[in-house]
Amino acid sequence: MIRTIPILALALALAACGGRSENLNAARSGGAPRAEATPVSAVVSSKSAKQLFGHEPGPSNQRPEPIGFYSKGCAAGNVQLPETGPTWQAMRLSRNRNWAQPITVDYLQDLSRFAAQQPGWAGLYIGDLSQPKGGPMLTGHASHQSGLDADIWMLPPKRLDLTRAERESISSISMRRQKGAFTNSGWTRAHHEIMKRAASDPRVARIFVFPGAKVKMCNDETGDRSWLRKIRPWYGHHYHFHVRLNCPDGATNCRDQDPPPAGDGCADAQDWVNNILNPPPPDPDYTPPKPKPELTLADLPAQCSGVLTAR
Ligand SMILES: [Zn+2]
To answer: Whole-model pTM above 0.70?
Structure first.
């Protein structure tokens, strides 16, 4: 009996050196295989991507990887932002959108710790991240597809013990006045400090917020202005601001957005405000853009078929 044990161990060691080496490599990189293109039928590849991804209940058991673009992609190996942490709560849990790439979850937890140091803020209320496997959504966003986008509520959290029901019923608050040309009385220096911190993080590519908030921060900032470059004026975004991360190192299937133009972008934001206050006369030659056709699975990067079919 005693002599058989080393022989068994040797056999196992040899097996490990042979056919299982691929699995061992996978184990070293997180224990899960990388998402690869998987053959799917023509019928499936022509199906609506939001119908396919919008009903997936859980993440793919694959190496974490953002695939494609923020508005045309999917996410392998997403992880869940815990519903409640010491300095955050995920909101609207019924949507099942508190999933993202690990880098996004780390980032949000870091930012929430900073937010919790601001007067009147117990941390952050965090809105939509991505679906379990990313991809287009049945309702709501064009982006948030690759696990690198996150919406953060403007409402300063007073408590972090909200029940599930409260997280459905409580609303964020709007920060805007005059259709977004200005901030309203709800705006505080803490909003400025949290967005400054959010944008100063090297993991961040850009942050979307309504034009009046950007101009307000441009006017109030007396120190370093470099972070303002990443704050981008955009439609909506007065109940929440939207953080978009860069593709992480080594994510070769992830496509970055072109960086924002050089400079702090404050003059551009002022132009947005001026156009809100004094809308230019309508262009008689304007033709509204054709609505974009719905994305099919075949429109997404090929690896998304592997994400969709993985368990
Ligand atoms: Zn968003």
So the answer is: yes
Which CATH number does the domain 30-258+266-282+301-309 belong to among 3.90.1170.50, 3.10.20.310, 3.40.50.1010, 3.30.1380.10?
A: 3.30.1380.10
Distance from residue 6's CA to the centre of ligand 1 (Å)? 57
Q: Report CA(219)–ligand 1 centroid distance (Å).
A: 25
31 CA distance to ligand 1 middle (Å): 31
How close is the Cα of 274 to the center of ligand 1, in Å?
Answer: 24
Residues within 5 Å of ion ligand 1, judged at the Cβ atom: 151, 242
The whole-angstrom distance between residue 74's C-alpha and the CA centroid of its chain comes to 11
Q: Which two tokens stand for residue 125?
A: 């209320």
Integer Cα distance of 93 and 83 in angstroms: 8
Report d(CA 272, CA 128) in Å as an integer: 26
- pLDDT tens for each residue of 34-63: 999 999 999 999 999 999 999 999 999 999
pLDDT in tens, 259-303: 999 999 999 999 999 999 999 998 889 998 898 889 999 999 999
CA of 205 to the centre of ligand 1 (A): 14
